[in-house]
Amino acid sequence: RSSLRPAAMGAVACAVRSISSTKATAARVAVVGASGGIGQPLSMLLKLDPSIKELNLYDIVHTPGVAADLSHIPFPAKVTGYKGADSIHAALEGCDVIVVPAGVPRKPGMTRDDLFNINAGIVKTIAEASAKVAPKACYLIISNPVNSTVPIFAEVLKKAGTYNPKKLFGVTTLDVIRANTFVAENQGTDVLQTNVTVVGGHAGTTILPLLSQVKGASFTPDALAALTHRIQFGGDEVVKAKDGAGSATLSMAYAGYLFTAKLLQALKGEKDVVACAFVENTLTAAPFFAAPVTLGKEGVEKVHALGSLSAMEQEALEKALPDLLAQAKKGVEFVQNAK
Ligand code: NAI
């Protein structure tokens, strides 16, 4: 039920095959941080989505070049680059969906929480602009630490009086696609048919893959522990391999596109669109918690229950909650203490 791949793959395949068979649609999407390692390939994937009419690329550097480059690809989305703080309102105004991969990525030895001091301020500024000129948009937060940046975004919107919990998402899709890849490898199954539900948060041990719920799978205790750890710390593999040049960008761009594509389908009225995302809910004591969510015309339509958990998963959930609560509190306090 948390499958993210087939429909979105279909969208890309459809886009690449032919645009003549696609219906004209009207989605307006902005990417904030569009010149970055994630932002550029994400913007390219969005350019290939025929359901997008306008694609606004905002960053503090390089967006005119990125936009000019992408604008030569023959797909309907009209791509416009907006560079610098003065243009953020123009970039976001009237957008249906705002995707945010702005901010600094990790270097070897850093946790996502280490990024807080820089990225918190960036996300706060983007939330303020969003509240002002795009108060009804859906916001998809990629900037880390997601466990804190989503509460920051919410708090700014609350202050502005525009917060709608159905429209704010922390993007945890990378955890899901990693889980699908690693589980299929381990089980020797078709990766295109493997769908793992990943709940919790988006940092280390707060990432909770529900391997006990993977249909038809059977894991040895060692494999279960190793796979869980690899899904939780898969980002570190990439950070280490990139050796100081950043964190996951290409897989994240793909994941970000998948989630955006799903949301766009749901906003258009498609039924039964389900994806895992970090959203406000009351499933646990944490204010935000990733869970399978049915998406609809107004954003979150339904947050699904977690289903039955193994003893190991239940224990991991209980251990994760204090971290999720503390990281959310840190975000809220950052906004409350800001001038
Ligand atoms: P990057 O450094 O390559 O790109 C970031 C972009 O943000 C740059 O182009 C930069 O100019 C821009 N930027 C900085 N301040 C800005 C502002 N005030 N307004 C608009 N744009 C601004 O970094 P990368 O690798 O693209 O990562 C971006 C963020 O995504 C990081 O915080 C990273 O930790 C996070 N990330 C999240 C993942 C997830 O699963 N949610 C996975 C991987 C990375």
Model description:
Helix 1 (5-17) packs across helix 9 and helix 2 crosses helix 9 (250-267). 45% of the residues lie in helices and 17% in strands. The chain contains ten helices and eleven strands. It is globular. The protein has a six-stranded parallel beta sheet with strand order 3-2-1-4-5-6, with helices on both faces. It is of the alpha/beta class and 339 residues long. The protein binds 1,4-dihydronicotinamide adenine dinucleotide (NAI). The site of 1,4-dihydronicotinamide adenine dinucleotide (NAI) has 32 residues, from helix 5.
Explain the layout of strands and helices.
Blueprint: H1 5-17, E1 27-32, H2 39-47, E2 52-59, H3 63-71, E3 78-83, H4 88-92, E4 97-100, H5 116-133, E5 138-141, H6 146-160, E6 168-170, H7 173-187, E7 198-200, E8 207-209, H8 221-242, H9 250-267, E9 273-280, E10 288-296, E11 299-303, H10 311-337
Parallel strand pairs: 1-2, 1-4, 2-3, 4-5, 5-6
Antiparallel strand pairs: 7-8, 9-10, 10-11
Helix pairs in contact: 1-9, 2-9, 5-6, 6-10, 7-8
The structure holds 1,4-dihydronicotinamide adenine dinucleotide (NAI).
Subunit structure: Homodimer.
Enzyme class: oxidoreductase
Domain Lactate/malate dehydrogenase N-terminal: 28-170
